[in-house]
Amino acid sequence: MHGKERNRTHHFEFPGNSGHLSVELATGCFSDVDSDELYRVGKILSGFLYGLLLEKAEDRRSSINLFHTILKDTSLTIEDKDLHDLLRASNRAFRGGDYQNSLFLSKLLLTRINQIIDKRLANNERRIEKEIIKLQISTLNFIGYLFSKMGKNIDYGIKLATIARSLLKEFDDSREDIISMNAAVYDTLGALYIHKGKFDKAIGYLLKAYELDRTLLSMGQVDEIGIRLTCSNLGYALTEKCRLIMENGRESLNIHQIEGDLEKAERYFNMVQVDKPPVVPDNLLKDLELMAAVRRMKEGLVLCEKVKKELQKRLL
In b/e form, how buried is each residue of 186-211, taking b as 16+ CB within 10 angstroms? Predict the structure, then answer.
């Protein structure tokens, strides 16, 4: 005599042990749904429910957007094996200009990465795969960059990017992928310090990013958009620095220094033009990041001319 068939049940814990959800199917119901499928559906539902319970309204809205994304691609769940699926979803949102949803997804990704690392450390696993650490670094930096795009949480963004920079010191900085990651972190820090109005710091980080971008070009690795973003930010930071000096310096001004910085700014702005090497392929001309770099270039050139005219007036 066979024992009584038991209901199928799965339990799901919310992040930070903040709660849990149980999904149970009564005996004989939904016989076409196997245990793996039930687990996947339960995981999606628990993630959605947790998102709806978040305190901030914008995070709850992002959770709803994420749920819509998942419904379109039901393979997307927050599991170790799906980290890269979550990363791709965040990148899709970013490329579409949905920075809030991209931020929400990136925070979920970082939470999951940290959980994996913490679990392995708790189990005394001394060796943690370099790829998971590199993904952690990239996500930390990406969240910082998203804050620069959204113009909020700037200090926290600097903190995250600085942590990413510290973690990168454990890797071989002569490798192409590590050079690229360092360039991205320096570019993020430069963009964040522009928001704070600390243009000397911004220029210092952006110059490092630019030199690493040039190194990558010499190695045959081309990022037509990344180097233009760096150049547009670098030109803008130099121009804004000169403008502030002009506004605040009523008596003694280092004219030659200002003229030199404005000339450098113009050179960096001109590098943003899409027909300058490395030439931007036609299929990337409508990329939102490229368009942002071009827009900053145009605004920066106008500002640069205004500062130059003001400088000429001072010399009369």
Answer: bbbbbbbbbbeeebebbbebbbbbbe
Q: Is 236 buried (19+), middle (13-18) or exposed (0-12) by CB count in 10 A?
A: buried
CA 242/CA 231 separation, integer angstroms: 17
**Per-residue tokens: 113:** 């990465």
pLDDT in tens, 16-34: 667 777 878 777 676 666 7
Which residues are 22's β-sheet partners? 11
In a domain? residue 105: yes
Per-residue pLDDT of 115-147, as tens digits, reads 888 888 888 776 778 889 999 999 999 999 999
Q: What is the full DSSP assignment across 287-313? A: -HHHHHHHHHHHHHHHHHHHHHHHHHH
* Helical packing angle, 176-196 and 199-218, nearest 10°: 160
Beta bridge partners of 20: 13
Decide if 27 is inside a domain.
yes
Q: Which range of residues forms the domain containing residue 78?
A: 7-109
CA 173 to centroid of chain Cα atoms: 21
Is residue 222 one of the residues assigned to a domain?
A: no
Total domain count for the chain? 1
**Does residue 284 sit in helix, strand or coil?**
helix
